[in-house]
Design brief:
The chain is of the alpha+beta class. The chain has two domains: 88 residues, no CATH class; 108 residues, no CATH class. The protein is built from seven helices and seven strands.
Length: 225
Amino acid sequence: MSVYVQQIRSVLDDALAELAVAHETKKVANTPVSNTNYLARWITNSIKKQRYDSCVAKDLIGWQKMARSSGNSSALYTEFLRLQSFYQQLLPSMEELQPVTDLHINQLLDRLEEAGWSWTNEFVISGKNQVFTEGKSSVVMCAKECEEWFEAIDGSEAERLHKPIRVFVRGDHQQFIETAMEVGLLVHKQSDYKSVIKYHGLYWVFPENCGKTRPEIPNAFPTPV
């Protein structure tokens, strides 16, 4: 597992566990404002003490800025709960990670095609490219990456992703993110619409779903009660 995933999971789990203890000991009232204020202080203290690896520093600083700029309305507690739940659902075990395989990618493309998307992986993408696809929503993947970025798994017909692979997306990005989650993929956005493929944004899929930044969470993903 990547250091980032371990560390961001630890941040979320530690923060919410320590807040729960504060609730039990009556040190913090279980209200939206109190929870947000507690987490804001917790984040600042974690930064000062360098409690976590530098790979999550950007996340911590971003949350700190959010708390300072939005105050009581920053909804840090809600965001922490939602992100923790998302990781628990997609990566339920930190010790026994499941490989991302060519079957996941095929399922993603099949479901998008059923929803009216077009896709192609016929071309090697090495620089600026203009790939013509049908319709308003489309996915483009590199032929070389689809062929060489996967390796055999002993005793299985599936092949394991062993290098981060690019997915270029045009159209309804939320539908793409939701569909990826449905087939068990975490996607990491690099750009909305600017990339080496004209009019397409760029997402990454990482081996074992372990990226180096927070993945995209569907807007429709529920917040735990």
